[in-house]
Amino acid sequence: MSDIFDDRRKGLEEEYFHRQNKEAIEKLRAKMAVAEQAKAVGTSSMKCPRCDGSLTESKVDGVTIYTCDKCGGIWLDSGELEQLTKKGSGWFSRLIK
Q1: Is residue 50 included in any domain, yes or no?
Q2: Could you tell me the CA-to-CA distances from 31 to 2, 24, 28, 97 in Å, in that order?
Q3: pLDDT digits over 37-94, tens only?
Q4: In the chain, which ranges are E strands?
Q5: Which residue range forms the structural domain that includes residue 7?
Q6: DSSP character at residue 89
Protein backbone atom coordinates (compact mmCIF):
# COMPACT_ATOMS: atom_id res chain seq x y z
CA MET A 1 0.00 0.00 0.00
CA SER A 2 2.84 2.41 0.75
CA ASP A 3 4.32 1.66 -2.69
CA ILE A 4 1.22 3.18 -4.32
CA PHE A 5 1.63 6.37 -2.32
CA ASP A 6 5.38 6.50 -3.03
CA ASP A 7 4.75 6.11 -6.75
CA ARG A 8 2.10 8.83 -6.64
CA ARG A 9 4.41 11.15 -4.68
CA LYS A 10 7.24 10.56 -7.14
CA GLY A 11 4.91 11.22 -10.06
CA LEU A 12 3.71 14.48 -8.54
CA GLU A 13 7.30 15.52 -7.82
CA GLU A 14 8.38 14.82 -11.38
CA GLU A 15 5.38 16.73 -12.70
CA TYR A 16 6.22 19.71 -10.46
CA PHE A 17 9.84 19.89 -11.59
CA HIS A 18 8.84 19.43 -15.22
CA ARG A 19 6.47 22.40 -14.88
CA GLN A 20 9.18 24.49 -13.17
CA ASN A 21 11.70 23.68 -15.92
CA LYS A 22 9.16 24.54 -18.61
CA GLU A 23 8.45 27.94 -17.01
CA ALA A 24 12.18 28.68 -16.66
CA ILE A 25 12.77 27.82 -20.33
CA GLU A 26 9.89 30.10 -21.39
CA LYS A 27 11.34 32.98 -19.34
CA LEU A 28 14.78 32.46 -20.89
CA ARG A 29 13.29 32.41 -24.38
CA ALA A 30 11.43 35.65 -23.66
CA LYS A 31 14.66 37.30 -22.45
CA MET A 32 16.49 36.07 -25.53
CA ALA A 33 13.73 37.47 -27.78
CA VAL A 34 13.98 40.88 -26.08
CA ALA A 35 17.76 40.85 -26.49
CA GLU A 36 17.46 39.94 -30.19
CA GLN A 37 14.93 42.74 -30.78
CA ALA A 38 17.16 45.25 -29.01
CA LYS A 39 20.16 44.08 -31.01
CA ALA A 40 18.22 44.47 -34.27
CA VAL A 41 17.27 48.03 -33.33
CA GLY A 42 20.84 48.80 -32.28
CA THR A 43 20.23 49.30 -28.58
CA SER A 44 21.24 47.10 -25.71
CA SER A 45 18.82 45.33 -23.40
CA MET A 46 21.34 45.70 -20.57
CA LYS A 47 20.76 48.16 -17.77
CA CYS A 48 23.37 50.46 -16.27
CA PRO A 49 24.60 49.05 -12.94
CA ARG A 50 24.85 52.56 -11.56
CA CYS A 51 21.52 54.22 -12.44
CA ASP A 52 19.40 51.63 -14.32
CA GLY A 53 19.60 53.59 -17.57
CA SER A 54 19.92 51.67 -20.82
CA LEU A 55 23.34 51.02 -22.32
CA THR A 56 24.20 51.79 -25.94
CA GLU A 57 26.95 49.87 -27.68
CA SER A 58 29.71 51.53 -29.68
CA LYS A 59 33.17 50.67 -31.02
CA VAL A 60 36.32 52.55 -30.00
CA ASP A 61 39.62 51.43 -31.53
CA GLY A 62 38.04 48.06 -32.33
CA VAL A 63 36.83 47.52 -28.74
CA THR A 64 33.14 47.40 -27.87
CA ILE A 65 32.19 49.79 -25.07
CA TYR A 66 28.83 50.47 -23.47
CA THR A 67 27.68 53.99 -22.61
CA CYS A 68 24.76 54.81 -20.32
CA ASP A 69 22.21 57.21 -21.81
CA LYS A 70 21.29 58.64 -18.38
CA CYS A 71 24.48 59.07 -16.33
CA GLY A 72 27.03 58.95 -19.16
CA GLY A 73 28.96 56.11 -17.52
CA ILE A 74 31.21 53.99 -19.70
CA TRP A 75 31.32 50.24 -19.10
CA LEU A 76 33.87 47.76 -20.41
CA ASP A 77 33.97 43.99 -20.43
CA SER A 78 36.84 42.05 -18.90
CA GLY A 79 40.15 42.68 -20.64
CA GLU A 80 38.93 45.58 -22.77
CA LEU A 81 40.68 48.24 -20.70
CA GLU A 82 43.99 46.48 -21.35
CA GLN A 83 43.20 46.35 -25.07
CA LEU A 84 42.55 50.09 -25.14
CA THR A 85 45.74 50.94 -23.24
CA LYS A 86 47.96 48.63 -25.35
CA LYS A 87 47.02 50.42 -28.58
CA GLY A 88 49.57 53.12 -27.72
CA SER A 89 48.43 55.69 -30.25
CA GLY A 90 44.74 55.74 -29.31
CA TRP A 91 42.92 58.53 -27.53
CA PHE A 92 42.61 56.47 -24.36
CA SER A 93 46.34 55.93 -23.91
CA ARG A 94 46.92 59.68 -24.37
CA LEU A 95 44.23 60.39 -21.80
CA ILE A 96 45.80 58.27 -19.04
CA LYS A 97 49.36 59.55 -19.63
Answers
A1: no
A2: 44, 11, 5, 41
A3: 766 776 556 788 888 788 888 887 788 888 888 888 888 888 888 887 776 656 666 6
A4: 55-60, 63-68, 74-75
A5: 1-42
A6: S
